[in-house]
Amino acid sequence: xxxRGVREGCWGGGELRPAATIGSLSxxxxxxxxxxxxxxxxxxxxIQGDDAYYLAMAQHAQIEPLHPTxxxxxxxxxxxxxxxxxxxxxxxWVLALLLAIFGDVRExxxxxxxxxxxxxxxxxxxxxxxxxxxxxxxxxxxxxASPAFVINGTSLESDLPHIAFFLSSIxxxxxxxxxxxxACMALAVLTAYQAVVLVPILAAFLxxxxxxxxxxxxxxxxxxxxxxxxxxxxxxxxxxxxxxVLGGYFQSYGLQSLTNKLRNAVALTVHLxxxxxxxxxxxxxxxxxxxxxxxxxxxxxxxxxxxxLGLITLWHSRKTPWIWIFFLSALAIFxxxxxxxxxxxxxxxxxxxxxxxxxxxxAGLVTHAALSLALASANYQHWQAYRxxxxxxxxxxxxxxxxxxxxWGLRFYAEDAGAMPMRRAQPLxxxxxxxxxxxxxPAQFTTGGGTLTLLESREVRPSLPxxxxxxxxxxxxxxxxxxxxxxxxxxAPADEVRLSTITEREPQLSFLxxxxxxAESQLLSGVYSLENNSxxxxxxxxxxxxxxxxxxxxxxxxxRLLDQTPARRITxxxxxxxxxxxxxxGPGLYTIxxxxxxxxxxGPVTVTLSADRSFQPPGDNRELAxxxxxxxxxx
Length: 635
Known about the structure:
Elements: H1 25-39, H2 51-61, E1 72-75, E2 78-81, H3 90-102, H4 107-132, H5 136-144, H6 147-152, H7 159-174, H8 178-191, H9 198-208, H10 214-219, H11 222-238, H12 242-253, H13 258-272, H14 287-297, H15 301-316, H16 321-333, H17 346-356, H18 361-399, E3 402-405, H19 408-417, E4 420-421, E5 426-427, E6 433-437, E7 445-446, E8 450-460, E9 466-467, E10 488-489, E11 495-504, E12 511-513, H20 519-522, E13 523-531, E14 535-546, E15 555-561, E16 569-574, E17 577-583, E18 588-593, E19 605-611, E20 626-633
Parallel strand pairs: 3-4, 3-6, 5-7
Antiparallel strand pairs: 1-2, 6-11, 8-11, 9-10, 12-20, 13-14, 14-19, 14-20, 15-18, 15-20, 16-17, 16-19
């Protein structure tokens, strides 16, 4: 059997190299040393990115070993069903085993335990390259130097186990070792659903070889059978189909909207152009006009150059089903445009580059490895800043009721110190501490009638002016949400973390317009941010704190019901006692008023506006009932 033409485009002509040529001990020693040089400096890497979610699953697996995702988790202020997490349970099981062995999360032992995945991916890549390329060592080293392998290989997310199983399944399949190939396919799918793309990739290989081996074709059913079995097992044992729960979140968050898909496509094209060094990229006269047109959209050279290189790479790999099939699948499957999504095609892109531009391969390898390590170092410093800040304030977290409004590694270390996750529109009370991040999806909260007072703050500023995730640059490395560049270059802070406290403050107003400067300190719960400088969305229970009037005064609330708001029965209460109730027949601007003037007791007054029904608009997970303009005591 053969994969045609890696030398000309990976499956464009030529035969597989015989297995007898595979296994150079000196080459494998070089690969081993290269992997150790990439990983050992980052063994103490802080918890980062989505590590926190996988570790939460691992912790739950100590209770339900077979169902690490069978629990509810507060994410970005919203309680979600983790059965809808976009990855199956394999990586959570690995972490659960480590957690059971070590008793707690320990960065160095955990990263050491993940080192075999890096080695497995590297040796599998070498095995594949030996069969498809005349310079397999250089192709493997170029694969190892790709930014996604260097940077994301320092995390505890599913990317590293996935690429290890993904490449191992292909290596075993090419060697006609079908049982281990099937086992690795199953493990790859249980680590990441996108591993089902192995089916069309390897089917294209068999088709081009005109293979009649029913055993090889039968093995390709493994990923599909594994996905079906996992879904059925979860449905029968937990009562929910993970794919259905995930589909619901895709719809409610609007993740598969056209805008997200287009940004995902552009960002992935950019990352494709940056998998290997630009020195090894295919050059063509059309590169200049493509780059010039792209520059009209975004003038950053970190966008228009790799975007043009990505398109040219796609054209030059037109005879490479592995690259095209996975890339097109990534456009359909993903929505965030992260560079790590393309890790499964880093190897064939590296093979193409080595075969096309071997004269420059040393310079390309050195420069790209240096860039990848520099980005990984800046990434390390970003997460290290979170770990150090939480360490410095740990005694304060443990001495007070503390809330964390942020995600990723900051949240992990804060919760480890005793903080609680902030829920959206979370009511707080005087004396509470709030740990917040400007970058990490902070949840909106109200101050419970108090004032938010800053205690400490710290800028997250890596020493290198390189960013994969930050506040100000256009980096799309982790997400295309803030920009479409391959990575960011900036000397500005990547983030700012703050520790604040809620100090008690008497309410200043008896009648509270939503655009009043005092509104933020008098909103208790269920009321969201100011819009159009005049109104705020409110949930089914909007509660505010008011200054008591000097004399009996009518209590009123002015609000608007829209066509899409199902609420029709509205209740106005004072200190928990209903003061007015009204049913409305349709949309419009209304004012509900208590029949009699209210003279509350001395001290602050709690007023609640309640609605009988609420809704969640597409792409917005807030629970909304009506638009609130003003509420309080007024004649």
